[in-house]
From TrEMBL:
Transmembrane segments: 31-51, 57-74
Keywords: Membrane, Transmembrane, Transmembrane helix
One protein family per Pfam: YcxB
Protein's organism: Exiguobacterium mexicanum
Family annotation (InterPro entries): YcxB-like_C (IPR025588)
Protein name per its UniProtKB record: YcxB family protein
YcxB-like C-terminal domain ranges (all copies): 107-161
Length: 166
């Protein structure tokens, strides 16, 4: 089966976000950072109250509100940060073949990914995991990298017949 598709910067950004949100390490990191921020705010309130010898609760109230806001809005901040960092990484290096038009051949023994700069072949045994989301199929060839297959304009029934879904 031959599939032609175009990979954009947004496709790579969405892959990175998806991967972080699905990985155990990514989930743990986000949770830890959501909790550490409020602990720092409340610790700062305690230190300031002790240093200023204040017993008024207004200081704890302000830092408490900051803690709640941090906890609620940190995931959005983190998503913006990942988007910005991914764009920077894509712009910073020579990424020929990563973005642009791709042709993927799904064959009995594996897949072949072609673009204007070269080709890559992977046997189905080299595909560690197949993850299907609303708009993408990710064919993981390692724990941190995958072939990104946008579903735009694809006959997904036909594609699923070729994929080694385990």
């Amino acid at each position: 089966m031959k599939i032609q598709y175009e990979l954009t910067e947004d496709d790579y950004i969405r892959f990175n976000l998806s991967h972080i949100k699905r990985s155990k390490t990514g989930k743990r990191m986000i949770l830890l950072q959501r909790i550490i921020g409020p602990l720092i705010f409340l610790g700062a309130a305690f230190v300031l109250a002790t240093w200023l010898q204040e017993t008024d609760w207004w200081l704890y109230g302000i830092y408490g509100i900051a803690s709640v806001l941090w906890f609620l809005y940190y995931p959005k901040y983190f998503e913006r940060h990942v988007r910005k960092q991914t764009r920077r990484l894509i712009d910073e290096r020579s990424n020929e073949g990563m973005l642009g038009l791709h042709t993927m051949d799904l064959e009995e023994n594996g897949l072949r990914d072609l673009n204007e700069f070269g080709e890559a072949r992977v046997s189905w045994a080299g595909i560690k995991e197949v993850v299907e989301e609303d708009d993408y199929v990710y064919l993981y060839n390692s724990s941190v990298s995958a072939y990104i297959l946008p579903k735009r304009g694809l006959d997904m029934e036909e594609v699923r017949r070729w994929l080694p879904i385990r």
